Transporter (Pedobacter lusitanus), 460 residues
Amino acid sequence: MKMFTNNTLFSKLTFAVTFSLVTMGLSANLHAQETLTIQDAIDRMLENNLNIKQSTLNVATATVNLEQSKAALYPSLSGTINNSLNYGRSLNPATNQLITQNFYSGDGTLSAQVDVFAGFSKINQIRQNKLLLEAGNSNLDKIKNDLVLQVVTAYFQVVFNTDLLKASKEQLVVAQETQRREQALLEAGNKTLADISQAKAQRATAELNVTNAQNQLTISYLTLSQLMEMRPDSQNYTVVKPTIKDIAQAQKSYDVNDVYNTSLSFFPDIKLAQLNREAAGKAVAVAKGGFFPRLTLGGGLGSRYSYSMGAKAFGLPADPHLNDQISNNFYQNVGFTLSIPIFNGLTVRSNVKKAKISYETSKISEQLAKNNLNKVIAQAVADLRAADSRYKSNENTFNAQKDAFNVIEQRYAVGLVNSLDYNTSRTNRNKAEVDYIQSKYDLLFKSKVIDYYLGKQITF
């Protein structure tokens, strides 16, 4: 009896400890799971996305190129020191004497030069690099903009699949309850095997719908996590659903021209195309600089020295002191160099032609970007109108099917409706609910796409 009591006490303690640990684990898991708004998802993507980081490095490279083109305007300065050991009969550069003797000789020079005129090619290169730097920043904005739209799409997919899974689970509960009721009626002799088979089929379909909805939700979470550069196994967050107020605000009408003109003033794709066109125009000016003469101002200073080996042994006069040689041989020079291009295999002309072709191509690309933006915005406005109409129709259909099913369900409970009519009504009601959920989020998403082209912050 005592042993039984101890074992019971031990079992209770074990259960208490286990329950506490499980509770603590569940509490920690719930605490660790965060709620992610759509703006949180966008901010996390902007912070972690590797494409953005790569584009940021490209902007840094363009900054260096601009700094280097500015530095090319400065004079160049270089120093040179030459030393040599001479054998046999040779000219001593320090004394200008032809001697047959081994000696050391050397010279040092310091020279500088600067381009006075080079066809304005360096100035135009600076201007082009400024435009290329701005284009790099616009390309960075474009990448961010495109990724924001991808995050919004993935976020809405998560929200839709969450509601779809919830609806599928509710439908499964109804199917399970119907099967239990059909089984009880079968055992009481009021139903046939055909009725119970129909109920089992409906339950199996509902279970399949739950499985499919769960898989779709998992995939949509994975897509969103990948856009935010999160590990696939770190899905410890839920998303915020839009409210009825958000749905009501989405039911707006927009004018295509108003949206297009607003977007045209700031949209990164258009700004990038414009800057690329302007940079291509400066590239033509840079290439034309090769037609002009180049005038360079240069100057320098230097000195020479030498040391004869074994001069005393051969009875030759001793070499002057090193300081005296450097002082006596010190020289300076200054001058202009004019380089006139006469014929260089038509290289400059070919470069100018290619630069002009690139400029014309960039003009076409800019117009294509504008046309594409206009087309996309017109489609987005049309899609929003269609989504609004579809949402209203599906809302009415769902409410009607829901009311019809409630009536059928009540009549089915008292035996006034057969199983086939009941299951048909429930299937219609379930389909109407899925269509309603889809159209609801499709309307809100289409509305946020318009906000995207208007430059508004995407929130709800």
About this structure: The first helix runs from residue 2 to 32. The longest strand covers residues 103-117. The beta strands are 34-36, 76-86, 89-92, 97-100, 103-117, 237-239, 294-308, 331-339. The two ends are 65 Å apart (CA to CA).
